[in-house]
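quick one, 175 residues, struct below
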Amino acid sequence: MAVPDDATFRLLHEVRLRGVVEIQETEVVVSLVDRGFVARSVRGIRITAEGREMHTSWARLPTGGEDEQVARRAYERFLPLNRELLRICSDWQVRPGAVTNDHADLHYDWSVIDRLRTLDERIAPVVSRLGRSIARFAAYRPRLRAALAPVEEGEHDWLTSPRFDSYHPVWMQLH
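---
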C-alpha cells in the first residue's frame, strides 16, 4: 500500500502510541476507519491489528538507505537526551521526598522549566536536521516549540499531559 500523507500517518501514529484518541470525525478518521486501520470505540478511535501492521510498514524507512542512516544518527543523539527529558518530567510531577508537585513553589518549577528549555535547545539541531532530511519529521520541531511556550507561561499541563500535544507526548511520538 502507498505511503500515506503526513496527516494520515501522524494520526495513525498517535493512535498507536496513545491507545485511544478522542477526535472529531474528519476525512482522515473516516479513511482510517474505512480501511480497517482504526475502529470507533466509546472513548474515540483505537488501532486495529491491521492498523498496527500498516503503521509498522509505513513507519519503517528503507533498509540501508540514506534516510535510515540519518534517522539512526539522530536516534543515537536523541537517546541520552531522552533520559534527561524523563528526569525532567518526573521532577515536574514529583518533588524530592516523593511529594507530588502542586506547583506552588515557583522557584522549583522555574528550575525544572529552565532544564527543559536547555534540553529543548540541545534537541533542536537534531530534530531540525532530521526534519530537513525526512519530511515526516519536519513538524516535530515546531510542535515541540509550540508545547514549550505554554509551559513557560505557567500552563502546568503542557509539559506532561497525555490528553493533548503537550511536550512529553510530542517527544514520545518523535521517539
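The chain has a mean pLDDT of 91.
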